[in-house]
Amino acid sequence: FPFRLFPLREHGMNRRAKPLTCQEIQAFKKSKEVMQRFVRAYRLMLRFYGIVLINEETGELKRAENWAERFQNLNRFSHNNLRITRILKCLGEMGYEHYQVHLVKFFLTETLVKEMLPNVKRSALDYFLFTIRSKRKRRKLVHYAWQHFKPRSNFVWGPHNKLLKYK
């Protein structure tokens, strides 16, 4: 059957690719080789998007040297946003929640703070943010987004009264 680079427990755009089972996910997590390949695939896709994984332990990211050219591609072709959402979901499935958090924060920073990826902003807010499994970490990222969103009064991804009190 067709192989997926970032498999999920749900159907994607390719209907012939079978969703992962919980048993398969557990088997993948137990295999050092599979998990190393997964991180290699993640690094490969990050490079394609103009991003570098600088710390494999923490998941910390930075712009790659070719970021300007790659960001043009991200801004031009919205299908990349679906792939990024898939990668984020898969990171969560495979136990790499810390990678998820850094990738979402990277896109929030590039879209809201540095304003370099305007055509990724809606996906970052509508989809990327909500792939984060940990409610506490997701809340922290929603607060970060709210702090940098302009105009703040148009922010719809969390209740303003709670965001004002967030610590």
UniProtKB/TrEMBL annotation:
Describe the location of the Opioid growth factor receptor (OGFr) conserved domain by residue ranges: 5-163
Q: Which GO terms describe its molecular function?
A: opioid growth factor receptor activity
GO CC, alphabetical:
membrane
Q: Which InterPro entries match?
A: OGF_rcpt, OGFr
> What transmembrane ranges does the database entry give?
none
Per the record, the domain of life is Eukaryota
Family in the record: Belongs to the opioid growth factor receptor family.
Q: Which PANTHER family match?
A: OPIOID GROWTH FACTOR RECEPTOR (PTHR14015:SF1), OPIOID GROWTH FACTOR RECEPTOR OGFR ZETA-TYPE OPIOID RECEPTOR (PTHR14015)
What protein am I looking at? OGFR factor
